[in-house]
Write a structure and sequence with these properties.
single chain
């Protein structure tokens, strides 16, 4: 009875540690993604969104886009959308990579622990 309780407690602690290692690497991936987005994604996202906004405004109001308020709003909204999509891609990709690394570390730790326990018995 005591060994069953001990095993259950050990499994619960291992599960808790697994969640924390995976969570830590995921948060690390999010942080790296934010930095990479700030360095490499902010300006290109704005440029690509602006180009898309210019083409949308050109389709709506004619090819030489007038400097009116509505056309500027269309361009500004598309620039913001370009920045958001760029940030979403950077942060999602880097957090997924961090999660995969954390899961791989946890799997390797689990294999190592089972090998050590198998040798000790």
């Amino acid at each position: 009875m005591l060994s069953a309780l001990s095993r259950a407690r050990t499994q619960k602690e291992e599960r808790k540690m697994k969640e924390t290692v995976t969570q830590k690497t995921t948060y690390l991936g999010v942080g790296v993604g934010l930095v990479l987005f700030a360095i490499y994604g902010l300006l290109p996202g704005s440029f690509l969104g602006g180009v898309a906004g210019l083409s949308i405004a050109g389709m709506l109001f004619g090819t030489p886009v007038d400097p009116g308020i509505v056309s500027r709003m269309v361009i500004a909204i598309s620039m913001l959308l370009g920045i958001m999509v760029s940030g979403l891609i950077f942060i999602t990709a880097s957090s997924t990579i961090g999660w995969l690394i954390g899961t791989a570390i946890d799997t390797l730790r689990g294999i190592k622990k089972t090998a050590v326990t198998a040798e000790s018995h």
